[in-house]
Each structure stands twice: as structure tokens, then as C-alpha cells.
Amino acid sequence: MKYFFILFILFVCLDCSPKLSPDSNWAGRRWVLTEMRGVPVQLSGGHRDAYIKFEVAEKRFTGNGGCNQINGNYSLDKNKIRFGEVISTKMSCEDIAFENSFLSTLNNIDRYELRGNDLLLKRKKDVLLVLTARSN
């Protein structure tokens, strides 16, 4: 009986142990937009490149759309991801059409796939955005 009790406690403790979320290694990186709808994105290497930074514990993201600062929430379920409403500042820039396209595409994402340092954001099986990890 004593062994049964020990095994039971051990099973409960292992079952309750925290499991790593699939996005646990996304934090602390700047995910730079390198491709949108199959077209490579021209990068300047500066602060105006479109990117996302994930705040994993809060399931939030911040970043830049190419012109304005952006932020919002996201949710994960296995290989599915959904971005909530994106909030942004309202500066006017020459590349505002690019930013609008990026943000509207982000709202259509429903899946993701990690491939090396690339985060592929998809709509069903179609890759719509490719973000490449950079150190902060």
C-alpha cells in the first residue's frame, strides 16, 4: 500500500509539471519580416525594418510594421496561431501601403511552422509571412 501511495504521488507530480509552450524559445528575439506572400522584403538593417518581438508569458507581441510601432495579443494551440487586433501608432510614412499589407496579412494567419531560424506564418498550408530570428 505504501508503494502504491508513493507511485500515485509521483504520477500526480509528473503530470502537473509545467510543460514548455511551443513559443518558449521565441522570447528575447527580434523576428524580422524577410518575406511576404512569396516576395522577399528589402531590409535596411535599421530600426524601420518590420519585426515582431514576442512576450511569451503574457502572450503579447510588440514590434514595428515598417513605419509605426505595433502591439497586440496572440494565442497558440499546437501548430495554430492567431493574432488579435493589432494596435499601432499613426505616423504617416512613404511605405504605409507596405505596413498596411503586413498588418492585414498578420490578421489572416492561422498556423505556424518553425524551420531553422525562420518562423513561417501560414493561412492553411500557404506561407504568407516569413520572419527570421535575430538577436536583440
Describe the structure.
This protein has 136 residues and is of the alpha+beta class. The protein has a single domain (25-135), classed as Beta Barrel (Lipocalin). The chain is 20% helix and 41% strand. It is built from two helices and ten strands. The chain has helices spanning 2-16, 96-107, and strands at residues 29-36, 39-40, 51-55, 60-64, 69-77, 80-83, 87-88, 111-115, 118-123, 126-135. Strands 1, 2, 3, 4, 5, 6, 7, 8, 9 and 10 form a ten-stranded antiparallel beta sheet that branches. A hairpin with a 4-residue loop joins strand 4 and strand 5. The longest helix is centred in the first third of the chain and has 15 residues, at 2-16. It starts with a helix and ends with a strand. Residues 10-18 have low confidence and may be disordered.
Quick structural overview:
The chain has 136 residues and is of the alpha+beta class. The protein is built from two helices and ten strands; from the N terminus they run αβββββββαβββ.
* CATH hierarchy: architecture: Beta Barrel
Describe the main β-sheet briefly: 10 strands, antiparallel
Order of helices and strands: HEEEEEEEHEEE
Question: Beta fraction of the residues?
Answer: 35-45%
Global morphology: globular
Please give the radius of gyration in angstroms: 19 Å
What portion of residues is helical? Answer: 10-25%
Regarding quaternary structure, how should these chains be classified?
A: single chain
Please tally the helical runs, counting DSSP H or I stretches of 4 or more residues.
Answer: 2
β-strand number: 10
Q: What low-confidence regions span 5 or more consecutive residues with pLDDT below 50?
A: 10-18
What structural class do the secondary elements suggest?
A: alpha+beta
Q: Output the CATH topology.
A: Lipocalin
Alpha-carbon distance between the termini? 54 Å
Tell me the number of structural domains: 1
